[in-house]
Amino acid sequence: MIRYAVALLSVSCLFASSALAQDDLLAKAKQQFEPIPTAPPDLPGNVATPGKVELGKMLYFDPRLSASHAISCSSCHSIGLGGADAEPTSIGHRWQRGGRNAPTVLNAVFNKVQFWDGRAKDLEQQAGGPMANPVEMASPTTHVAEQLKGIPGYGDLFAKAFPGESDPITLANAQKAIAVFEATLITPNGPFDRFLRGEQDALSPTQKAGLAVFMDKGCSACHNGINVGGGMYAPFGVVEKPGAEFLPPADKGRFLVSKTPSDEYVFKVPTLRNVALTAPYFHTGKAWDLRQAVAVMGTSQLGTQLTDDEINKITTFLDSLTGEQPKVTYPILPPSVASTPRPQP
Amino acid sequence: MIRYAVALLSVSCLFASSALAQDDLLAKAKQQFEPIPTAPPDLPGNVATPGKVELGKMLYFDPRLSASHAISCSSCHSIGLGGADAEPTSIGHRWQRGGRNAPTVLNAVFNKVQFWDGRAKDLEQQAGGPMANPVEMASPTTHVAEQLKGIPGYGDLFAKAFPGESDPITLANAQKAIAVFEATLITPNGPFDRFLRGEQDALSPTQKAGLAVFMDKGCSACHNGINVGGGMYAPFGVVEKPGAEFLPPADKGRFLVSKTPSDEYVFKVPTLRNVALTAPYFHTGKAWDLRQAVAVMGTSQLGTQLTDDEINKITTFLDSLTGEQPKVTYPILPPSVASTPRPQP
Fold first, then answer.
1. Cβ A270 vs Cβ A110: under 8 Å
2. Residue A114: beta bridge partners?
3. How far apart are CA B121 and CA B178, in angstroms?
């Protein structure tokens, strides 16, 4: 009888200590992360009206913004594939390969800067890049407005989205519209968001253990904030350079933008939101296995050989970063007419 | 006063005669055309359950069915672009060009046969073609099921769509699912459908005049039925062969399937449903102007030099064949995992 009481006491202590640890974990997590808001954020200087968002969606899906009329934003940033594509690096104009893995468009609005090297300050600036890039959509910047003006249905749509402007069909306005649409592509209410809002059971015990490892080992020194990443730059190989497969010498990352020697092999820390949906990984897209990517991060960024158990826990935690995926109705695009500029062969 | 009465009488006679002519037009049209049903038709031997339709939608949008993992059914049959693409002939694997203009998927379920040469009897059979075609998706037929089995999320989806089957992930079942999804891509309630249901004002006076010309000149001898086409074969150039631009000698059409000499340069009469959305035209996709396409049809098929006024009226009538476009929510696809077969370079 006494032994039984002791046993009960122990169990009760265990519960109390576990509850305390849970509260600690949540408190610690709240210091480092934020849940994804449930409504799209405002973009400075670019008010999101329904007409502008709808126009942006059309442009996002319109392949006629590319020289070939076959590639749209959606080609490499598919809403069905975690906002990215299923390629190491994307296939662009005339089957050329892009230089780096297509980052997800989902929650990109919460990144501090855009592109792997941060060469665009926001979504609006980013949207102009791939359209003009000769290995991506290959549309001369001077041609985009001309193309859109050649599709009569866009006239009213731009006029409504940009009221009071005498010549609303411009590349700059197309970028603004695309940006407000992209800002709607957020994935709130994932298990981790619900946990951060105090729903202790939203994470499984293994996911909680993984979160603890993720913070204890230092992953969250870089992967933090709303996007569990996306907020800073870091050298790839801060402790130990990974092999050339993952870090080919020719791509010096942020250095190509800043020309600052300390920026050699520095890249934007990518968001880990929905990371389970967006293989392959790294700027090279050469890591197809999330477990492998986690292991490489351990050695190259933290100087730690993570154990199989730690890797398991971390990747199970990363699954909790998959949120509610956007519900997007496929837009019906204004048709081409006889005078619409034609695709380049 | 007498002159006034006579004038009134004349006006009243004019109304009566016009009303009679309208009733005649509708009666004549009803003999040749049918409105698009408002619900998807059943496919023989392929019951459309919600789970199968949803699976079919996923497969339709999944680029991992192609060798490159970059091309899906949707790439060339975009729901945003009238169910087709904006190309003369589509861009496929490694930027190869398809041999013929991509036909619209919208209302394709109402075509008697599929492809320009009728080489598939239905949507289910058709769906297998582009996947395996080396210039389109270039996925070996033996590989499709292997690829899908390598994406764990598809397991449950196929099991639900094909209950009771021990090995439901097969190419044949993928084709069935795609077909039932495609059967939902119908565009009912266009002006012409509403007219056929007795709503006289659904067509403008010019559209009615165009419909009359369309029937009187003989266009509807081939372009009739639900799909205003899609129900028969016809030689391109039945009266006068068009130029090689529109009818290149190398593509003998249906003859390539049937090997029957009388099938040389015979093609399926395409549907004219939503034709205003699907430039460019003809199996070559070389006619970018619908007016030009109508004129060529006049000379080549009817031996008639249509006047500008007749062409205007016909093309205005053809606008009335644009129906309500499908509302499709972009599907969220099951993610690849480390063991998922990877894209071919």
1. no
2. A120
3. 15
Q: Is residue A241 within 8 angstroms of chain B, CB to CB? A: no
DSSP annotation string for B209-245: HHHHHHHHTTGGGTS-BTTTS-S-EEETTSSSPPPTT
Q: Which residue has the tokens 């490694």?
A: B94
| pLDDT band for position A22 (cuts 50, 70, 90) | confident
Gap between the terminal Cα atoms of chain B: 88
Indicate the residue of B80, B335, B343 with minimum beta-carbon distance to A330: B80
Q: Which residue has the tokens 């600690």?
A: A24
| CB count in 10 Å sphere of residue A167 | 10
Query: DSSP letter at B277?
Result: G
Q: What is the CA radius of gyration of chain B?
A: 23
Chain B: residue nearest A61 by CA?
A: B80
Among A89, A106, A330, which would you mutate to test the B interface (most chain B Cβ atoms within 10 Å of its Cβ)? A330
pLDDT at position A18 is 61
Whether B238 contacts B205, CB under 8 Å:
no
Does the bond joining B280 to the residue before it have cis omega, within 30 degrees of 0? yes
B136 catalytic per annotation: yes
Interface mutation vs chain A, best among B336, B337, B339, B342, most A CBs within 10 Å: B336
Q: What value, to the nearest 5°, has the Cα angle with vertex B208 and ends B86 and B227?
A: 45
3-class DSSP assignment, residue B78: strand
Which residues are bridge partners to A120 per DSSP? A114
Closest Cα in chain B, distance from residue A167 (Å): 25
Fill in the amino acid letter for B65.
L
Residue A46 β-bridge partners: A43
Q: Which helix (H) or strand (E) holds B175?
A: helix B171-182
Q: What is the pLDDT of residues B164-189, one digit of tens each?
A: 999 999 999 999 999 999 999 999 99
Q: Does B43 touch chain A (CB under 8 A)?
A: no
Say whether pTM exceeds 0.90.
yes
CB pair distance less than 8 Å for B85 and A94: no
Report the 10 Å Cβ neighbour count for B227. 25
Buried b (16+ CB within 10 A) or exposed e, A68-80: bbbbbbbbbbbbb
Q: Are A43 and A122 in contact (CB under 8 A)?
A: yes
**How many CA atoms does the CB half-sphere of A330 hold within 13 Å?**
22
Q: What is the pLDDT of residues B52-78, one digit of tens each?
A: 999 999 999 999 999 999 999 999 999
Contacts (Cβ under 8 Å, ≥6 apart) of B164 = none
